[in-house]
Amino acid sequence: MATIQLKVNQxxxxxxxIDPATPLLWALRDHLGLVGTKYGCGKGLCGAxxxxxxxxxxxxxxxxxxxxxxxxxxxxxxxxxxxxxxxxLQEAWMEHDVPQCGYCxxxxxxxAAALLQSTPSPSDEEIDNAMSGNLCRCGTYxxxxxxxxxxxxxxxxx
Amino acid sequence: xKNQFYRSDLIPDIDMPAExxxxxxxxxxxKAANDSSSGxxxxxxxxxxxxxxAGGGLVLxxxxxxxxxxxxxxxxxxxxxxxAPNAFIQIAKDGAIVIAAKNPEVGQGVKTxxxxxxxxxxxxxxxxxxxxxxxxxxxxxxxxxxxxxxxTPRNWDLLRQTGAVARTMLVTAAAQTWGVSESQCxxxxxYVVNRSTGKRLAYAELxxxxxxxxxxxxxxxxxxxxxxxxxxxxxIPGVDNRAxxxxxPLFGIDQKxxxxxxxxxxxxxxxxxxxxxxxxxxxxxxxxxxxxFIIEGNGNELELMSGxxxxxxxxxxxxxxxxxxxxxxxxxNASDNSWEAYKAEAxxxxxxxxQISDEMGDAEAALAQADQTVESFYTYPFLxxxxxxxxxxxxxxxxxxxxxxxxxxxxxxVARMINSALDIDPSDxxxxxxxxxxxxxxxxxxxxxxxxxAIAKEIEAPVKLTWTREADMAHDFYRPGGFHHLKGALxxxxxxxxxxxxxxxxxxxxxxxxxxxxxxxxxxxxxFPEIPNLRLDQTFLPSRVPTGFWRAPRSCAVAWVFQSFxxxxxxxxxxxxxxxxxxxxxxxxxxxEGERRALHTGRAIDVVELAAKKGDWGNPMSQGQGRGxxxxxxxxxxxxxxxxxxxxxxNRVKIDRVVVAADVGLLLNKSGGENQVEGSVVDGISTLxxxxxxxxxxxxxxxxxxxYPLSRMASTPKIEMHWLTTDWSPxxxxxxxxxxxxxxxxxxxxxxxxxxxxxxxISKEGFxx
Lengths: 158, 769
Fold this sequence. Notes:
By secondary structure, chain A is an alpha+beta fold.
């Protein structure tokens, strides 16, 4: 058991009495109560658990919390600067009514946000490639792609 | 006799329970998911209750009972013995309008579109409505479930009347206020307008006066004409979207209670195995583990099978402890079934007559007299539902009550099951419904709910059970696989006979005559009413593999078989597939007048012709490209699809475009409805590309998304949708767009390559997407 400090959504957090091997996913969900990040497969196959570490998209189910000690984690709850000013991707997701069940969408948005950081105006092919690790069981891919384009057109990298 | 063979109670829309042999009977999916007994009978009575809101305002709660008895007990109403409402409207004095969403949201959009129906008839702007998920309460909300695309047809009349009754009362209140006749008044988007003076009164101002009025009979109120609709048919985003895109807790798995513990439940990898002994002392010493114990279960796969519970302080600790768990299983009654053995057996018994046979005309004679016959053997595999949110549930046994937070498609089945498995009185079971991360029929079953309750009963704290992905794939109620030996007869280019020997499964240890859940076949599923000679033989192989209802049960499998075989017949006859398919419908007619579950060939012809036109049927294509057409009628929806594919030299299939033509009467929510169709096409591609559940010695071999792949963004084709606007009542869209996908794609692959796919998924025949 260990005490681990990290920055989550711009706030310093301390995890006490935690198994350092705990995947970041479960540290976020069970220990910090941030349940927007989802469990889908536990093996980095579905992307539902995607968060940002220092701005890069990673699969939190396969990342021991100890390995991100001292680093900056952004989850879906912290993607927008505040409740009134959502990230352009979140706005685009609502405009296109992307979700069906909605379970994968936090991971999709986090992955797309990282894409727009590196590629502010991605082509269809660039979107398909970047998003290929994020599964949607309901099959909302057409709308996800359209929403990413919409967000990109509105400065989605911001 | 033809219509008899195609009788409508042969169910195009929903499935039959395993306990019914053959196709004579029809039951609801939810009831079928509930083998044991029927629930407590609650009489339906007409009931409408008005009461003041705390701050003044109007609360309308209805039971829109059916039949002559519905309104027959005023004395009982007076004495307070009421039936409960199935819809709920609140109009507060400040103008806030709250509409209850009654059914479980699994991604089909029901939390948005059912309240839209009420809002349309209530005549209020959608922006002024707040939708609230209702509690589970049979008495107040009637039947609450998500299955069989039934939410729309079951609630269409009731919810329109719910809104219209309230609107009528508000109009009456305004007329009385102004001292004019009701015909002088008109409801208009949250106001009642005086036609002569143009004066307006807001619903909020009228709420208290309306609450004092007598309630009109639900059948007496005038419903809006569709031409007057302002909301239905529009692009309305889901009401939970903001919460979803900001990661707010909505789903079952997001539930958290003070002091909550985290559990796993480990069952025998061989279906039906019983836990005899486990290294519980070792497990109890694992970090964070609070307790570990064996649960005997009641042997009912729908309720509580034997297993080992591990309860820990975190999900991670419970998952880690499971890895150290060693169990001695008694497998004397466990499954030793093998998919490979079934395939070999099904192939070998092909020529034999089936155990059960039904016939119209004389199929053997038609085959004997035919100019040409076609024989084929089709195979499709078992499938897992693979909901992205694994099965989970939270329960807290406190004060003699079992309180449950469940992502269940059939929450009203739970209390009876808890009673059966755990001997807790149904009246002591309280269940809250939470958003569901994908249904597809898996959560019609409540095994995971009963499991957590069995654990919670032993633990003095709230407990959340989370299945690992591996447990989810190993313990599904799978779509059963199946085999079809088909023989078709052609005479002078016409399809004169069809014989299908269908090999399916029966529960092992039973009488051998009952099909497993979702593994039955009935003649209505052929949907070629002009074939004069038709025989259906069935043979059932004993199996212990749990099966259930998978998106568009039965249709999800057999539509591909029959729509592919129709293409084989057209090719053999040297005829154009569109023309040949249309010929099978004959004259436009309803096969059973007034029965919506019976095929209407006119509606079928219309969608097939529309799909063909929009899909450029007959236009030349390049080398390596192909076009395929398929039709299916299920869940009251008529769908035809044209798929266009490009196949390269390495048999890589690129699905370029899928054109969908549909007649569902009225599209309630353009956004939600089209989303369902797009998703159905993607799901169809997922299943045909590479999904297959196999099992060896009673143990499922697939474990996660690496060996049970879901379709990804890059393989999503261009999807075009064309909706016929007809006067028919609307239906749900969770299912009926799915069945034609595989047929259209496989017919297109044949068009491109000359190779007929007869085994699913297509990876079995060397093709990949």
